[in-house]
Specification:
This protein is mainly β. The chain has a 22-stranded antiparallel β-barrel. Strands 3-9-10-7-8 form a 5-stranded mixed sheet. Strands 4-5-6 form a 3-stranded antiparallel sheet, with no helix packed on it. The relative contact order is 0.14.
């Protein structure tokens, strides 16, 4: 889809936004009764077709979806189950203009929203889209590979969130919200078996522990004894999974005005990583498997071992009828050991071990006033985190060829400590019956201390630093924010326009480098967004949302093969220049008859580098991980065979057009063509408690790459999983 097509879609969405309120709803004066419903509206009110109200906390308070002047895609817990979403990366399959992928043996998650993201593999650089789990920001992309369980909903906010969220949200924010304890007795269990000897169990139990205390315990285990890749070195299948998670929540309400929520979680994983499918420049041993993309080589057992623990205390205290004080205090501890064979052969060329630890503490306090047509949120935020990493490459078969004879290993290490302070104010003023003015400001100060950073060589038991350990600091202070206008011609339609600005702080290279000047900090990137959108429920069985946007992207941070070294091109991160992004998206939810739900989404983006300041990045290039077109859809139909037996069928799928994994040096190997992935599930509900289903993912068995990486031994590729099938049995009290 070219630029002219994008412009036509922009015009279509804009025209639709202006026409829907007038065409569907009679324009009445405030307080006047609405016109009688048309025959079409009466048909839409057929029993069983009315859509449920959507409530979100995208602006850190509960609001109806159609009252929020922000582009938000919401997936409820039932949506997640119907689409077969098991992890964060699966969310992209049902969200327009969203890209998520796991890379480097599934040890890092990259998130890109509307073409804005961070395609980095280092643990110390924050994502451009803030990811929050129960209001707690996760500082590293290594912390985003978690499985989803007992989720109430996921909200994807698009565009810079420079007032209420602030830190590193040039792309947007992703909020994962767990199911909260309630006084009602609740028991849920789900177990299943699938391809490659995989099985899982999810369970949750909750209810009242006393007249003032509710609790909820949720657990998950995912086990897999085989895999869809074969290691030609050993002849064995690779893909074993051992993942376990648990979460305990206690909701204490000692008085009508005070609520305290404690949440603690524990997660552990010891799984085999994904094999690197390589085209090695130094040997022909892998050539006989060149046409077998799911057969790859590894001289070691690829391993991903992770442990995460954390706790948070959230307090909501109603000080007066219109004044609420909220506080979120959180601590997270995360460790990982990621072992992978990057060269993809039996040779010891790039057998990598990544050993890291992350600790973070955060505190946010907010004061919310609501009354007399005015809503104000004033708050302060503080966080500190400590990231420590040591990466080692076992490479005795490669280093002599690169002019480093006598050495067995090469690696790098660093420690990064970050401290952030912020203050923010967000306001919404209903200054006229149908108009609301929105404004927000946030001041952020961030300081990073980067030390113990060096590259080393190992010969036997002797370790030699290539250069003395580097210590440096980076500080930034920025003001970000938003101004917008909401127009509500009717209670069920919102037209909104906004200008918002966000920034992602600069930082330090977390990858191996031979030159200490490569550890000089890169600068902040800034993004200014202009957006126009609408949300409308013209009939009780139809929800339609659309938006168009235009971004000015300055000092963009890119990761790629940017630096030259004695051993060839080295990957790294720096500011590459300026870009512009234009696009549009739309989605709908329609229930034409009782039991039949239709969901569909379309997104288009046109990205371009308009100013390049580094060699290898060509002006006019598209941004990485930014397909021009994305489509997603889900159809679900449930009907009754009897009062006790209800079959259901769900079909879902997503398409993305041609994509570039990396635009640095315009490498054709980094281009992947468009592809479609389709899924389905057939279920049978028995009474009000039991449900059994069979499911299939990637039913057409589409072969597609999720990433390509240029290494010192040649190109390596990562592929998406093939067709998988299974069955599931669930019980709900």
């Amino acid at each position: 889809m070219g630029q002219s097509s994008v412009k036509r879609l922009h015009l279509l969405l804009l025209t639709t936004a202006m026409m829907i309120p007038a065409a569907v709803h009679a324009q009445t004066e405030q307080g006047a009764p609405p016109a009688a419903p048309s025959s079409s509206a009466q048909e839409a009110n057929t029993p069983g077709t009315q859509l449920e109200d959507i409530v979100v906390t995208a602006q850190k308070r509960e609001q109806r979806f159609n009252d929020v002047g922000v582009t938000v895609n919401v997936l409820t817990g039932s949506d997640i189950a119907r689409a077969g979403i098991k992890s964060l990366v699966d969310v992209a399959s049902q969200t327009p203009n969203l890209q998520m992928k796991n890379v480097v043996g599934n040890g890092i998650t990259n998130v890109t929203i509307r073409g804005i993201g961070l395609n980095d593999y280092a643990v110390n650089n924050n994502p451009a889209a803030g990811v929050y789990v129960d209001n707690v920001y996760l500082v590293s992309p290594a912390m985003l590979t978690f499985g989803l369980f007992d989720v109430d909903r996921i909200e994807v906010l698009k565009g810079p969130q420079g007032d209420l969220y602030g830190r590193n949200t040039t792309a947007g924010a992703v909020n994962v919200i767990s199911r909260r304890p309630s006084a009602a007795n609740d028991v849920e269990m789900s177990a299943g078996y699938g391809s490659y000897e995989s099985w899982h169990f999810d369970g949750a139990v909750g209810g009242a522990l006393s007249s003032t205390l509710n609790g909820r315990l949720a657990v998950q285990t995912v086990q897999q004894d085989s895999g869809w890749q074969t290691n030609y070195v050993t002849g064995k299948r690779v893909g074993k999974i051992n993942r376990n998670n648990g979460r305990l929540q206690l909701d204490w309400k000692p008085t009508e005005n005070l609520s305290v929520l404690f949440s603690g979680h524990l997660g552990y994983e010891d799984s085999q990583g994904v094999l690197y499918k390589g085209d090695n420049l130094f040997t022909t041993i892998d050539d006989q498997y060149a046409n077998q993309p799911r057969v790859a080589g590894a001289g070691i057992d690829p391993r991903l071992t992770q442990k995460s623990t954390g706790a948070a205390v959230s307090i909501d205290w109603s000080l007066a009828h219109s004044l609420t004080l909220s506080s979120v205090t959180a601590y997270e501890h995360f460790t990982r050991l990621n072992i992978s064979d990057i060269d993809g052969t039996v040779l010891k060329q790039l057998d990598e071990t990544e050993d890291g630890r992350i600790e973070q503490f955060s505190q946010e306090a907010r004061l919310n006033y609501a009354g007399n047509g005015l809503n104000l949120i004033a708050g302060a935020f503080y966080s500190r985190d400590n990231v420590k990493e040591r990466d080692t490459f076992d490479a005795p078969d490669l280093l002599p060829a690169l002019g480093l004879p006598g050495f067995d290993q090469i690696g790098n290490m660093f420690r990064q400590r970050t401290e952030t302070y912020a203050g923010f104010l967000h306001g919404e003023w209903g200054f006229a019956p149908k108009l609301t003015l929105i404004g927000g400001l946030r001041y952020t100060h961030e300081r990073k201390i980067f030390d113990q950073a060096t590259t080393f060589l190992i010969a036997g038991s002797s370790e030699t630093d290539i250069f003395p350990a580097v210590r440096d600091e980076y500080s930034t202070s920025k003001v970000s924010g938003k101004v917008g206008l909401n127009f509500k011609p009717t209670d069920r339609t919102l037209v909104y326009a906004s200008i918002s600005r966000g920034f992602k702080s600069g930082g330090f290279q977390g990858q191996l480098t031979f030159d200490p000047t490569g550890l000089i900090p890169f600068r902040d990137e800034k993004l200014t967004a202009y957006e126009l959108g609408f949300k409308s429920r013209p009939f009780s069985n139809l929800q339609v949302n659309a938006a168009i946007f235009d971004y000015e992207y300055h000092d963009a941070q890119f990761y790629g093969p940017l630096f030259d070294s004695p051993v060839g091109i080295i990957f790294g991160i720096t500011n590459v220049g300026d870009a512009r992004v234009r696009g549009a998206e739309a989605d709908l939810w329609w229930r034409p008859v009782a039991g039949f739900d239709v969901r569909a989404g379309v997104g288009t983006i046109d990205t371009k580098i308009v100013k390049s300041i580094v060699a290898g990045v060509t002006t006019g290039s598209r941004l990485p991980d930014a397909p021009e077109l994305t489509l997603n859809g889900l159809l679900r139909y449930e009907w009754k065979l009897s009062d006790e037996v209800r079959p259901d069928v769900s079909i879902s799928g997503n398409y993305q057009s041609r994509i570039a994994f990396d635009v640095v040096r315009n490498q054709p190997e980094a281009i992947e063509g468009g592809y479609f992935v389709g899924n389905a599930e057939v279920g049978l509900s028995l009474g009000n408690h039991w449900r059994v289903s069979v499911w299939g993912k990637n039913l057409l068995d589409k072969l597609y790459r999720t990433q390509a990486l240029d290494t010192s031994t040649g190109w390596v590729n990562f592929y998406g999983p093939p067709r998988t099938v299974g069955f599931n049995l669930s019980y709900k009290l």
